[in-house]
Design goal:
This protein is mainly alpha-helical. It contains five helices and two strands. It has a two-stranded antiparallel ribbon. Strand 1 and strand 2 form a beta hairpin. Helix 1 packs across helix 3 and helix 2 packs across helix 3. The longest helix is centred in the last third of the chain and has 21 residues.
Length: 131
């Protein structure tokens, strides 16, 4: 990649297909500025090897992203972020995160955690991921 390589993470037991998880992560990286137009995304082989998943799964994700116009093939470079992408607003990006946080909060409460304990888990995760 042109920028620092983003780390893709998949959760096979989440119920969300792995190819969909990859699509969502690339979309989020583009929307958040982690991937800029013209940046090269890791190859199918690189992602599959790094995550220990089938190359066809990654290929399906990259193909869907190409069909949606988010990625484009660049001869000699591989797949790159398309130049004509609209940046999602801050409100849209916050809304996406809010939906996930709401799910985590509900699960924490169901597991008997207090609001302070849930907040501590979120804070710990945020500190680990942003360092």
């Amino acid at each position: 990649m042109s920028r620092a390589d983003p780390i893709f993470v998949v959760h096979p037991s989440s119920g969300v297909p792995i190819y969909r998880q990859l699509i969502d992560q690339v979309e989020a990286l583009v929307a958040g500025g982690g991937l800029q137009p013209g940046d090269t995304v890791p190859s199918v082989r690189q992602v599959a090897a790094a995550l220990g998943i089938n190359m066809m799964t990654v290929s399906k994700a990259w193909s869907r992203l190409e069909a949606d116009g988010l990625l484009q093939r660049d001869r000699g470079r591989g797949m790159v972020v398309a130049v004509s992408q609209e940046t999602r607003s801050l409100a849209d990006r916050k809304g996406q995160v809010r939906a996930l946080v709401d799910q985590a909060v509900v699960r924490g409460l169901q597991l008997g955690l207090s609001p302070a304990q849930i907040l501590a888990v979120v804070k710990s995760s945020l500190e680990e991921k942003s360092s």
